[in-house]
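Hi all, long-time lurker, first post. I run a small reading group and we've been trying to get comfortable going from sequence to structure in the token notation. Rather than ask abstract questions, I figured I'd post a concrete chain and ask someone more experienced to write out its structure so we can walk through it together at our next meeting. Sequence below, copied exactly:
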Amino acid sequence: MRDVAIVGAGMTRFGELWESSLRDLFVEAAVEALTSAGADHLDDLYVGNMSGGQFVGQEHLAPLMADHLGMAGIPATRVESACASGGAALRLGYMSVASGMSDVAMVAGVEKMTDGADVTNVLATAADQENEVYHGITFPGLYAMIARAHMAKYGTTDEDLAWVSVKSHHHGSMNAKAQFHREVTVEEVMSSTMVADPLTLLECSPVSDGAAAVILVPLDQAKKYTDRPVRIRGVGQATSAMALADRRDPAALDAVAKAAERAYKATGLAPKDIDVAEVHDCFAIAEIACIEAVGFACEGEGKDAARSGMTALGGKIPVNTSGGLKSKGHPVGASGVAQAIEIFEQLRGEAGERQVEGAHTGLTQNMGGSGASSLVHIFERV
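-- Answer (accepted) --
Happy to help. Here is the structure in token form:
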């Protein structure tokens, strides 16, 4: 297996992008990625997308996107793993280059969520239809149950949840491509509209449009494209029971923990070796549970991380320096690739006001549904 590097990246801004279609968003991010790498061809294309069919009525996305990029004829594959679609696409692109099947691969993620679909119902297709959705549960409801379980087991409070959003909005206020740039206070978060008790509106990620793309090449060819490649050191992937009620502990994300364990094993690294991370904070409780699952905090101690500054810029392990899904936005098929772009920029020293000084290693964690699928990628500055 060959070592693999990211040599270019492109990303639209995230938000309610009424003026752009699904294909427009993909092409914008893809062209920026190709341009940044100075690449003029692709051997392979992977497109992460959760639900183009339900959001905009368009399936069979891979050949459509290849054609609109001006590269009809190349191998192209659409990848779906709910909100982990982008992370799953990145894993497949990594495998394609590592195996020698391709020398220049693009991994992209794209979603157009604001064109009129019933977003709550579309997202609910990522839950267990017979055992959860049939009985009326929604994703805010599922994560509210995770939050209640965490509260009952570890004493997590409403204020602990609010601090996660405060930290994420502070980071997002410095990201020009984020959906929200406004900082918020603990009081604003806690007094915002209740969505699913205990989760308020400002503890839930928004409905977003957007696309992100990266270019992957063998590490030993990376210097042809950039003098600052970022190596993908290793990948971990895992799954869990779809239904929350079928899991051993609803306060823990076991697929995230297994994916992280596999990524650490593949790289020989440990949580203490990571300098900056992007984790899947679709709801405030998700960040708390995810940082515990990947080993940045012990079980039950993730609740203190945002309040103490541990996961803020300047803290022990800055998490979601992009603003995370909460502030940057969450176009579900694109989020996993956008996470990789934030780490790519951090490790190249290009994150501006959000820069983590001396960052050498980074981690992304992307998950689908209420944690039934998860991907963890570990990166290093070359």
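A couple of things your group might point at:
The chain has two domains: 4-118+207-224, 126-205+233-381.
The chain is about 35% helix and 20% strand.
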